[in-house]
Amino acid sequence: MLELKNVQTFYGNIQALKGISLQIAEGEIVTLIGANGAGKTTTLMSVCGIVPPRAGEIYFEGQPIHHMPANKIVSLGICQVPEGRRIFPYLTVLENLDMGAFLRNDKAEIKRDLDYVFSLFPILAERRNQAGGTLSGGEQQMLAISRALMARPRLLLLDEPSLGLAPLVVKQIFEIIRKVNSENKTTIFLVEQNANLALKVAHRGYVMENGKITMTDTAANLMANEEVRKAYLGI
Ligand code: ATP
């Protein structure tokens, strides 16, 4: 479904991605783990066209997207939940969710999806008329994921969904990630610093260091790998 070939991305003179290659098949949850500053967020930004690569190629379902503007990439079915949530703080929960469905005009299906995200996160239904900015951190993350789901993405990019959240909320969010993948066949590319959590939910993983992919394997094998355990799982 998604393929990156030797992707190189820069911020001015700083090279953040030094030739990244990876693949994600339809229906998978694939995680990208690595330390601070390894280039995980930049990888997602390159896929969704916000920080386009300077060299290399990115294909979505066989179609080159590395020169495509971000809005066109979204319309193909790739949707990102950015780090730090970035919901619209002055819009209500319902208005935030409406924004997620901005590109759609299938009203009945939108209503169905709204009921679906409310079933995933009942607290959002309770808070539907509350301003997004007044929600708790965990609720904002739920809203950010739900807003992305309202676009009915084929590929969902999640950037650090666990960041700054209480363990119980994190557990709930990761259960929903698994559910969305298995019930809707939504393909998920998950960037996480919490490697333990990410490898538990993912089918496969890539390890990134200093702008390069250094390892890839099934999530189970990565969890059992001595180097990964020492460097990323704190074992
Ligand atoms: P974290 O887990 O801390 O979010 P990351 O693995 O997602 O880290 P990136 O945010 O992709 O890492 O950053 C990769 C490199 O690019 C870092 O060295 C960072 O300082 C640099 N970088 C990121 N954004 C910018 C920017 N807007 N301008 C200049 N350099 C940047």
Kindly describe this structure.
- The model has no long low-confidence stretch (mean pLDDT about 95).
- A hairpin with a 2-residue loop joins strand 1 (about 1-10) and strand 2.
- The chain has about 240 residues and is of the alpha/beta class.
- The radius of gyration is 17 Å and the shape is globular.
- The longest helix has 18 residues, at about 165-185.
- Helix 3 packs parallel to helix 6.
- The strands form two sheets. Strands 6-7-8-3-9-10 form a six-stranded mixed β-sheet, with helices on both faces. A four-stranded antiparallel β-sheet has the order 2-1-4-5, covered by helices on one side.
- The protein has helices at about 40-45, 70-75, 95-100, 105-120, 120-125, 135-150, 165-185, 195-200, 220-225, 225-230; strands at about 1-10, 15-25, 30-35, 55-60, 65, 80, 155-160, 185-190, 205-210, 210-220.
- It is about 40% helix and about 25% strand.
- The protein starts with a strand and ends with a helix.
- The chain contains ten helices and ten strands.
- The chain has two domains: about 1-75 and about 155-230, P-loop containing nucleotide triphosphate hydrolases (Rossmann fold); about 90-150, no CATH class.
- The structure holds adenosine-5'-triphosphate.
- Adenosine-5'-triphosphate binds near residues 36, 37, 40, 41 and 42.
